[in-house]
Design goal:
By secondary structure, the chain is α+β, with helices and mostly antiparallel strands. The protein has one domain. The chain is built from 1 helix and 6 strands. Strands 1, 2, 3, 4, 5 and 6 form a 6-stranded antiparallel β-sheet that branches.
């Protein structure tokens, strides 16, 4: 323990900062710079994948606005794993911690948030898992 100027001792202290995921809005900010994520603009994502993911995001947003059931996947393998979308909007979460378009889904763990750039599909209508 460190000694204080008056000769007494005090315990060491530590301050911890924790980033907590935060849902910020139920609307997509379409001014978000999606293209900054593709490798033509310094990102790490194939430009064709960026275009597809934005299309899926728009399809999801429109389906939710029409109160239609919509399903999405963030897995491109086979069989495709589909999860029902509960909401779409902007969230700040790992690993970016800045507002980004995000899709919330029902999952076996209760719920998950997917960043827009991992979407591999969007299907409106009945459960594609059956």
């Amino acid at each position: 323990m460190p000694m204080n100027p008056d000769g007494t001792y005090s315990p060491a202290t530590k301050t911890v900062t924790e980033n907590v995921p935060e849902w910020l809005s139920d609307e997509i900010d379409w001014s978000f710079d999606f293209q900054a994520n593709d490798w033509d603009h310094g990102g790490s994502t194939n430009p064709a994948s960026v275009t597809r993911s934005v299309e899926y995001l728009r399809r999801i947003e429109h389906a939710l606005a029409d109160n239609a059931p919509v399903w999405t996947s963030n897995y491109g393998g086979w069989p495709r794993i589909w999860q029902k979308v509960s909401r779409v909007g902007m969230a700040a979460k790992w690993p970016y911690w800045v507002p980004r378009p995000t899709v919330a889904v029902h999952s076996s763990s209760g719920g998950e948030w997917f960043d827009w750039n991992v979407l591999t599909g969007a299907q409106v209508g009945g459960d594609p898992n059956v």
